[in-house]
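Continuing from the previous page of notes. For each protein in this section, the sequence appears first, followed by its structure tokens. Read the first protein now.
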Amino acid sequence: MATPLELLAPAGNADIGIAAIDHGADAVYIGAPKFSARADAGTGVADIARLIRHAHLYYAKVYVALNTILTDKELPEALEIIHEVFQLGADGLILQDVGLLELNLPPIPLIASTQMHNNTLEKVQFLEAVGFKRIILARELSLDEIASIRQKTRVELEAFVHGALCVSYSGQCYMSQAATGRSGNRGVCAQPCRSLYTLTDGDGAVIRQEKFLLSLKDLNLMNAIPDLIAAGVTSLKIEGRYKGIDYVKNITAAFRQAIDQFIGKHSDYCRSSSGISELTFSPDPARTFNRGYTRYFIAGRREKIASIDTQKSIGQYVGKITGTGADFFRMGSHDLQNGDGMCFFTKQNSLTGFRVERVDKEKIYPNKMAGLTIGVHLYRNHDIAFTRILKKSSARRRIAVEMDFTQESALIRLAVRDEDGNHAETIREVLPELPRNPSRALEQIETHLSSTGSSPYRVTGLTIRPQQPGFLTVSTLNGIRRDVLEALTRIRLENYPRETIRLTPNAAPYPEKRLDFRVNVLNEHARRFYQRHGAEVTEPAFEALSCMAGKTVMTTRYCIRHQLDLCPKSNRPSHPLREPLRISDRHHAYRLEFDCQQCRMSVILERKR
């Protein structure tokens, strides 16, 4: 039996989720009305219900994210929301707070959020043992690490393949809380990783002045899809519940094509939902929001993964300037259009931009010429032609059906069977007329039964009996086709293969015995959960600490020394830096500690300025 592969797309709201389904997603994830790790991307129950109905028609799934840590007062409301979304038909619950597992949950499949810091085999084994159906793996894992987890577990594995990267291990970043009082684990991250910092050595000498030292490029693992699947990943996830509909359309369609290409060459894998998306455009990840792309650590530490000169989107590289005039410049071959947004790096390595006002063959007239000299490399971060295409209806997803039409003496019968084996039938009493032109009568039946209009179906086979049918009016043919397809839709939704799993609490041992603030315990139910599993919680979540100074506010596989070619292991600088290194902004200073054996960096809050 073929293994289903899932393309999982973000849904900032119901309309974006519906667009993701239409552009090929096998599943979408959307924020619960409250308590989502993207607090501003919460969605009302009516919209969640609308999205679920649309997704389930294509046998695609909807997962609801309720993945913040919760206070004792919030748990009852969270439980009420969980029961409500379960009743709506949600296919899974993405959660972080283990206190929820101590409550009377409905039989909804549980998905361990990446905020739970799922970066080791031991952690994944524990989560599988306590009842999670799926684990969202830490983004930092390599193919070898994922394969090792797969070999010793049976739980579903989900991995990010595209989108923005948190520089810290997810769930282990407390920098926003420390700097602004806005907790990432509570869904309101202020993104201090996208801020400017100055790096100094142990003597206070400046190494880098006001750079985006913690801002990473965006992830793109499209070319690693076969490797991820071979390692054991079956759900390929696109990040972006804060992204707009154009972004979701483009990236979903691009990954749909890549996954289908893989499936086409590997008969032991299949899609996990129904229908084929017909696109009006050619998807291209380079033509949408990106800070430059990286494969991160999927193949180990092989590349520079930060974008320290800008935290903004640079978009698509289009070429370099070959000539200039008083108010225009020239490039080699290009497809620039009036209204395109462009950017480039100045001699000081700062990002600046301009708008294309007019294109006259090889001459490009910008709204300003400052900095546009021969040899400057240009990027397009607003592609107006591409945006116009995506603003319109850009995809139609349709389910394959076969029709069987039979005409008898006083009735007509139309039966339909879809690609998932669902069957519907409609019968009408009709006295057919003798056709003046038998071939014309047959052609009219073929044309109008095959024309499925705006329905979510496409006819891939049609049988007509007898071969010389009587004449039927267009309204009769359209009516019986409409009736049978509406009946099929009802049957598809009734037969949707929804999975339910009842959680059974147990006492599987947690892999650690003493737990500090980094397990993010903010309520007594979570504390009891760890106690039941043999672990003692020695301090509450970071958000409840009275003193934050001296605490590690970020743990990351990203290394500033490696990024700046200052790594004592790989670069062996002739004059090693005097430790400790520090980064600072206008308000805070942080000490950096390096674990070269594990290739990890810790960011420790020292003081407020």
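Done with the first. The second protein uses the same format. Note its length before scrolling.
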Amino acid sequence: MKGLLHIIKIKSPQKLLLFWMILFCSYSATSLRGQQKADSLKALLLNDIPDSTKRDIYQKLGYETLYKSHSEAMSYFVKSNEYATKMDNPKLVFLSLVGMCDVYSIVGEYKQAGDCLTEAIKLVSEKDYTLQALIYGRLATIYSDMNKDSLSLINDKKSLHYNMLQNDSLYIAYDYNNIAGYFSERGNLDSAVYYYNKSFEYLTDTCDNLFAYNLSGLGYVYGSVMDVEKSLNFHHSALELFKANGRTYDTALDEFYIGKLYCRYNHLDSAVVYLEKSLAKSKVLYNHDLLKRNYHLLYKVYNNKMDFANAVKYSRLELLYTDSINQKNNENIIQSVKSKYELEEQTKQLEATQKHNATLTEQRTLLIAICALVLVLLVISIVTLRINRKKNKTNLELVTRLDKTNNSISKLLSIISHDLRNSVGNLNNFTQLMHHSLLDNKSIELMLSKFVPMVDSTHSLLDTLLTWSESNNEIFNPKIEKVSLKHVVELCTRQLTYLAKAKQISLESVVEDTFVYADKNMLLVVLRNLVSNAIKFSESGSSVKIESSLNESYIEFLVHDNGVGMDEEEMAKVLDQTSHYHSRGTSGESGSGLGLSLCNSFINEHGGQLKIHSEKGKGSTFSFVIPQQSEFFIENSNVR
């Protein structure tokens, strides 16, 4: 009795996004209206609608069919979970997991219900009283169904505490009902009656389902003290409300209690009538517990009536049903072995990934060592050249070249640290979580799907740096060539697609289909840094736009965002190449401040200048120009 009341505890809709739709479905006025609503919701799914709307509809359908078809309800909650996971919305994932827990609880699959609840708990904030109350209510249900009544009572009282904090009268009434059920089960009937009456105090609607649960609970209490008349009156009143509200499972359970009561007082014909009704509904619901209890009680009734043919019939049905449950348990064991094998395979893959990461670490260490060695050699060369004063002119040229190479190496290291730090850091966090077995299969799949584009982008960057170093003897002198403007912008957006999708930001490009004379790799680094900064300081759901315009002999590039914007002081710091000014993004992203410094340097190498137009709270526009023709470089640089 007690476990049943937890199952229908859905939290206050005003405090959860879109949750009013779930609550409305759970309390449909009649079965006919409920079916009509389900049909209309299914019809909506045939239209071209956003994923967020589909998720809401599947969640509503889950609760609409919860007490009518458990398998159908489960399929809807699973769909809702898929869309919530795709949207990366923890609260919506939480709600879908609770819905799946409710289905498992109703059909008696308590382990699976507990697994769903364990996943949901990870998504709950300690300060979210609504979800805390919901979790403790569900935990009380699980413990009650596992016959751990003392733990169930503890969690009921915690749920009551959080509902009191938010003054949620309806669910305070539910908590009192559950506590009353605990005392009723343990034979403490005075306390049970007291708490049922406390539950009535918080109810204003006599047609509410909880009103019916309280009536049914009082019927159970008075049946325990042999007050048959009162017990039947309460049970029949509850039964009428359950029927009126289309509560198939609750109707079947109360019919079973009435049949059991008639059987106890030897009204066997009446007992058969109600038990057969309960059995028919239990078959439709495929409720393990009710089927078994009805088969067993019908066997006893017909045995007492000396109708041994029917007694044998129901005894065999009970036995067959028990055998089918044992077969299902064996299937669960097989599934467990399969899961263990899959886990071992995943462990092997993880070990391979760890070896690969170790190789990357060694390569990075080697690169740093080589850079350090080059710097040492450069210093030695400078000292040697300064000692040889007779070759002053040669020394002066060599010192200039060494300084320039030193700056180039510093910039190279800056690019590596700036562009690779987040990627390598995220991969490191992922491998740590995998190493400590803190991720389940679904989380691993989700994270891998996000890391694939990130790794692809990182590989692209490394390939760019390698090509750059092979094609330029002096690394950061621009290598001017005819470059397709559209191709460079497409490369930039492709490399940053994963970053934009992670924050649900759209990338748009409106560029001239023309050619410019520039260093392709420098131009790509500048655009990638400006666009990634725009994404960093934009809110989820906004857009970043890349534009170009032809102005006489120059091409102007513009990167727009609708992000947090900057004031005059912040813009001055950003344009100051010596300050490396940086701040955190809208999702807490960190940075070194080197990106814009590199951009300024590379734009200057092309004879351009970085400009910023920004307003606090209204977004920013970063722009720069480069010559469209190659004559600029012949006249104004040492590039030939």
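What the second structure shows: Residues 453 and 498 are 6 Å apart (CA to CA). Residues 1-30, 329-344, 634-640 have pLDDT under 50 and may be disordered. We return to this in next week's lecture.
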